[in-house]
Amino acid sequence: MVAGDGGEGDNLSRVKFRKFLFGLGSVVFASIGTLLFQPTVFCGITIPVGAKLAGWKVRAVSAKLVPSGRLEIEGLEAVDKRKSRIAMDSARVDFDPLRLLTGRLEIPRADFRFSLVDLELAPAKAGKGKRAPVTLPFSLREASVELAEGRLRTETGAWIVKSGQVKAEGWDGRTPKEIRLQFGRLDWNGPGKQELAATMQATASKSRAPSGEEVWDLKLTTDVNTVADLPPWNLVSPCRLTLEGKAACNQRGEWRMDGVETVWQGVGGIRLAAEISGTYASSGEWTARVNLDPADLQLAGIFLQPRGIRNLDGKAAGTVKLAGGPGKPLGVGIELNGQAVQLAAAGGAIWPAQPAALGISARGEWRGAERVLRMESLSVILGRVGQPEDFQLSLDRPAVFPLAGSPKAEAAEPASLQWSARGLELAAVAPIFLKPEELKVQGGKLSASGQARIELEKVGLSGRVESRALTASGRWVQGSLTLQAASLDFQAHLEKGTKLHLESGQLKASWEGGVAEDLVLTAKAEWDWARKEGFVVGDLGTGLAGLGKAWSGAKFWPADGQAQAHVEFSGNPAQKGAGLVSVTLNAMRWPEEKTGSWGARFSSDVQVEQGTWSFPEIELQANQAGEPLLDAKVMALWRPAEDTGRVRVELARAESAFVVPLLKNFTPEWQWTEASGKGSFEFTREKRHDLVKADLDASITVETG
Question: What gap in Å lies between CA 496 and CA 19, rounded to an integer?
């Protein structure tokens, strides 16, 4: 009896436990069913709670999930902590519930209608590793998305989409794939008044070739209607870009693109057309080839218009080849040929004088991470057939040019980079490289030649530049300067990218009213990038005859005479260094002086400490026929970076024979008879405030009228 009672008790316990599990399971499944299939609970609890886990606050007017396989939502609004906002009018998603058992959901059709999608993208975190490829846990047969207005806000601006439509078919692998994309408006609003307005349509449809490849037919049309405050793109709008062609993918996941036609057409009927082909391997390696149809170079001229270029005439055609891949440099090959090429500046200057043929051939590699350019070959020629080239640039052997840090070049075998230019109109090309307010050039026929001889890590530089009939103005020349002729000869070498040696440099110039060589400047120098220091030694000889007319900055200078200067400096001009400077003036005459002449001497040591330039004792002396006219000592401290400093002059003697002609030059309407004296004079500039102190014992006689 005891044993029997125990068996019945165990059976009773098992029955009760099974009932408990069944009851618990019923409650769980009932709760799940309520959360999923009871419309009020699904709309008011399930969707908001699920969205909250993803960081969104959501509410919907109605939502229901039908067990047979349909999700319907109406009037959904969602916001997140970054104030991103989504307003969805309706959503309908049909799915196969039985496919859930396979672990991959199948969606035969999905339709979404949005009145607003406003998203703010957070800036990418620095140093973030590579993201894993995105895989979708479902297959999609057909879908459509309608968007009344969308905004994608970033740190630099916002993309705005209006009247957007996207339709996709065949992504379940059972039917042909196709994508259709259309934006009634695609705008960009950037900082300030930056604005771009465009429309875009795109389609992509897939078919299967007899070889088993998947072939995609691609078509894209973009119309840019308005561009504001986005130079230089505002110069070429409105414009249209069309792209049409095929791309094929084999079973190994390798892509091939053949003959994709690309056409850009902008203002003035300018047209740029190209045929693009290329490959992409499953390993990540890729190639591209662009065959450029004959194109009007006026397009490049439009981009140069803000730099003072009126137009670039001519046509060019050719081929551009690109290749790359993971861990590989970007390979580039260029072959371009142009006809009737001529550059015209806004001021009327043209170069070359006659339209010429242009040939460009280059092959090399670019390593972006290291910023290293390896040139296998380079040739640029501009000129007329049977005549000397107007411009020529060539590299005869492979060379490497690291572009990070100090300038340097390397070559396993001796390589020569040569250049030459003939009859180059400076007024035509200077605006491309220099702002007119810095240096504006008129005239200036320039000829130049030179070479860079590259052997291992040493580069020898030599060349000559000469120009005639040149007028320059702007901040760099402090006024207007007219030269009859100017030339520069130099020899230098770079040593392992750490040192620059200027072995010799000579600048010569002449101007109207002077002699054959009015200015001769010779210099030697060295700079060590590693130590950030160097030295310079220079000698200057110049005649002042005619300089006052040639250079507006010399209108208060003597009208005649000879000047010699010598400069030495070693160290770092911004940190610490020392040197000396001396100037000797001979046979000087002021414009009002008809007879006689005077001479002067200026000399001083130079010291630099923490950016402060000091001239401990500058000696100023002038005499006429052995008779002292001026005797002074000057002490100066100056900080160029702050534009502050102090100058003190101790004047032992200043005779009227020296001072009166000088004052007449500055005040031609006054009648000076006497101006002599001695004493001290101090000038101080601090925080843009100037202070002058003077203690002079002077005798002045003048009629001011």
Answer: 87
Residue 224, pLDDT above cutoff 80: yes
Give DSSP secondary structure letters for 166-178: EEEEEETSSS--E
pLDDT at 81: 86
Q: How many CB atoms lie within 10 A of CB 517?
A: 14
Tell me, what's the pLDDT at 38? 74
Burial of 459 (0-12, 13-18, 19+ CB in 10 A): buried
pLDDT of residue 74: 94
C-alpha angle with apex 309: 305 to 311, nearest 5 degrees? 90
Of 203, 201, 202, the C-alpha closest to 177 is 203
Which residue's structure tokens are 């916001």? 79
Residue 448 sits at the vertex; the CA angle it makes with 447 and 450, to the nearest 5 degrees, is: 160
610 backbone φψ class: left, alpha, beta (φ>0; ψ -120 to 50) = left
Q: What tokens does 644 get?
A: 């502050």
Most confident of 37-46, 434-443, 632-641: 632-641
**Whole-number CA gyration radius for the chain:** 40
Strands 576-589 and 598-609: antiparallel
The 10 Å CB-count burial string (b at 16+, else e) for 381-411 is bbbeeeeebbbbbbbeebbbbbeeeeebbbb
> What average pLDDT does the segment 191-207 reach?
88
Q: Dump pLDDT digits (tens) for 56-80.
A: 999 999 988 888 889 899 999 999 9
For 443, residues 6+ apart whose C-beta sits below 8 A from its C-beta are: 349, 425, 426, 427, 469, 470, 471
Average confidence (pLDDT) over 96-118: 85
Q: What is the largest CA-CA distance in the chain?
A: 154
Residue 394: half-sphere exposure toward Cβ, Cα within 13 Å: 11
- pLDDT at residue number 16: 45
Check: CB of residue 170 under 8 Å from CB of residue 206.
Answer: yes
Name residue, tokens 């200027």: 502
**Main-chain phi, psi angles of 430, to 5 degrees:** -60, -40
Q: Measured between alpha carbons, how far is 116 from 76 in angstroms, rounded to an integer?
A: 11
305 phi and psi, to 5 degrees? Answer: -60, -40
Do 394 and 376 form a contact (C-beta atoms < 8 A)? no
Is 190 strand, coil or helix?
coil
Q: How many residues does the chain have?
A: 705
Give the pair of three-digit tokens for residue 93. Answer: 């998603």
Task: Check whether 22 has a pLDDT greater than 50.
Answer: no
| pLDDT tens-place string over residues 466-484 | 999 889 998 888 889 999 9
For residue 140, give both structure tokens. Answer: 């999609």
**Token digits for 45?**
């609890």
SS3 for 27?
helix
Number of H helices, E strands in the chain: 7, 35
Strand partners, 534: 527, 571
According to the 3-state scheme, what is the secondary structure of 45-111?
HHHHHHHHHCCEEEEEEEEEEECCCEEEEEEEEEEECCCCEEEEEEEEEECCHHHHHHCCEEECEEE
Strand, coil or helix: 670: coil
